[in-house]
Write a structure and sequence with these properties.
Elements lengths: L11 E2 L5 H9 L4 E4 L2 E3 L6 H7 L1 H8 L4 E2 L1 H6 L7 E6 L3 E5 L2 E7 L8 E2 L5 E2 L2 H8 L15 H15 L1 H18 L2 H15 L9 H7 L6 H16 L12 H18 L6 H10 L7 H14 L2 H4 L9 H16 L17 E2 L2 E2 L6 H12 L5 H15 L6 H14 L13 H14 L2 H16 L6 H10 L17
Parallel strand pairs: 4-9, 5-7
Antiparallel strand pairs: 1-3, 2-3, 4-5, 6-7, 8-9, 10-11
Helix pairs in contact: 5-7, 6-7, 6-8, 6-9, 7-8, 10-16, 10-17, 11-13, 16-17, 17-18, 19-20
Length: 493
């Protein structure tokens, strides 16, 4: 008679009641031991994989009722070297394939700790931070705590995302449990960090972002990481510079018109090109779209000025304050007909593009400042233009008009050095937006740089001396089509 096959959980503990059954299962190759009294029916899988898939089930089976604490409670999983830190009635260490479980002696759940999976508890953030500040004899790779600069970053991030009230609440909670946790000295250190970051007291800080917040100039570290990635790619970029001969006043004006027209069309200001010519060159403001018409006029006013477009932010005389003043001045000109968009003023509320949140209002100046430090180290005009375009697009310092400002700032870097503009025609809009999004979300620099290079190549192949001929060339290139209607065809040299 065939032996009845039992059904087991993915991981389980052997007990006195089933020990004989488990032994038979192991002998038959149906079960595999992966830890002390710990078994799995997934005998063909790598034990590391089984444990990883069932992490908290394993921890709960071997250490029931304990508190997930120290860095594990903050990071939400094992440390880089594969350690989970718990708090229980005594010290204990269990080594499994791909996982170390370290139980540290300490108190049972305290106020603020929450019930977790499989009978475990999860330490409150206040408790976990106090635990992480405790001295540890373990090497840094296997430390149960976190470096001080990481704790500073954690607190700064809370202030940035949740506000200073949340940080003050954290400190109050830590104060209330410090004695029961036996962590008075750790609370004093945490209190010093919080006070220094919030500016309510002086004290040493080690994290750059915490120091920046304490100095009144907090920045967005995630955006800075993207900016650093782009900076590195631009240092390595080897595109041939596209210089241009001196443009006559007519050619410069015609190129500026095309620039202003397409830059506004990207943002939804959709005039026919002939109607836009009447607005710009004849001053005819349509009754049905007066604000849109003024947007085009304001953009043209800037991009048609040799003085404005000859002003590079790399000029050491202006510095960061010069960048801020230039951004505000140009935005005020473009958005003059839209007082609800606060022309010339940085945003005071968060702005979004779909589900993407741009840099928070309180982080605008600090992030721009860090980005400017990277920008001014770039030598090539194309590199400066690409970086400036992304910097403004990523920070989004204004309520509206950020895309137009970003493209204006980029082209000023090019024109100031006698290089061709970058113009994004309607047919190329999706390529532009997708490349920007890819850089913002995935850090992919190549699509962004190739897109800009191609857009500049288009401009280099267009003769702007005669506007009628310019429009014919652009129509032949499909420049005025919607992206769904065709693709960009590069004009002949």
């Amino acid at each position: 008679m065939a032996r009845k096959r039992l059904h087991y959980a993915p991981v389980f503990l052997s007990t006195d009641e089933i020990t004989a059954q488990v032994a038979r299962g192991v002998k038959a190759g149906e079960l595999r031991k992966i830890g002390p009294r710990l078994y799995t029916p997934h005998v063909t899988d790598d034990p590391r994989s089984v444990i990883q898939r069932n992490l908290w089930e394993v921890v709960g089976l071997l250490f029931p009722g304990t508190v997930v604490g120290y860095r594990t409670a903050i990071e939400g999983g094992p440390s880089p070297e594969g350690t989970v830190n718990l708090v229980g009635g005594y010290d204990r260490l269990v080594k499994l394939p791909g996982l170390i479980i370290r139980q540290n002696k300490g108190p049972a759940p305290l106020a603020g700790d929450r019930r977790f999976m499989r009978g475990l508890w999860l330490a409150s953030r206040a408790r976990a931070l106090l635990e992480c500040l405790r001295p540890s004899r373990t090497s840094q790779a296997g430390a149960r705590g976190l470096p001080r600069d990481e704790i500073e970053r954690q607190i700064e991030q809370m202030a940035r995302v949740s506000g200073e009230d949340a940080v003050n609440h954290l400190r109050d909670q830590a104060r209330s449990i410090a004695q029961e946790l036996g962590a008075r000295s750790e609370f004093d250190e945490l209190n010093s960090i919080v006070g220094a970051i919030l500016g309510s007291r002086t004290g040493p800080l080690t994290s750059r972002i915490a120091i920046a917040r304490a100095a009144g100039e907090p920045y967005d570290p995630g955006r800075l990481e993207r900016l650093q990635e782009l900076h590195g790619a631009l240092v390595r970029w080897n595109a041939s510079p596209r210089t241009m001969p001196y443009q006559s006043a007519t050619a410069f004006s015609n190129a500026a018109f095309i620039d202003a027209y397409f830059s506004n069309y990207i943002e939804g200001t959709e005039f026919g090109v002939e109607e836009a010519m009447d607005i710009v060159f004849e001053g005819r403001i349509p009754e049905h779209q007066p604000e849109d018409a003024h947007d085009v006029l304001g953009t043209f006013q800037i991009v048609a000025s040799r003085d404005e477009m000859g002003l590079s932010m790399a000029d050491e005389r202006g510095g960061f304050e010069g960048l801020v003043q230039t951004l505000r001045r140009r935005h005020e000109i473009i958005m003059a007909a839209r007082p609800d968009k606060r022309p010339g003023e940085f945003k005071e509320q968060a702005n979004y593009a779909g589900a993407t949140a741009f840099v928070g209002p309180e982080l605008v100046l600090g992030t721009l400042s860090r980005g400017f430090e990277l920008f001014r180290s770039l030598q090539e005009p194309f590199a400066r233009a690409a970086f400036m375009m992304f910097l403004i697009s990523e920070v989004h310092p204004f309520l509206d008009g950020n895309g137009r400002i970003a493209r204006i700032m980029a082209n000023a870097e090019l024109l100031a050095e006698g290089h061709q503009r970058i113009i994004i025609p309607t047919v190329y809009r999706e390529d532009y937006l997708l490349a920007l999004r890819s850089l913002m979300r995935q850090g992919r620099t190549d699509p962004f740089l190739r897109m800009l290079d191609r857009a500049q190549e288009l401009v280099s192949r267009v003769d702007f001396d005669d506007l009628g001929q310019t429009l014919e060339t652009l129509r032949a290139a499909n420049a005025f089509l919607e992206p769904s209607e065709g693709r960009l065809i590069m004009p002949p040299m």
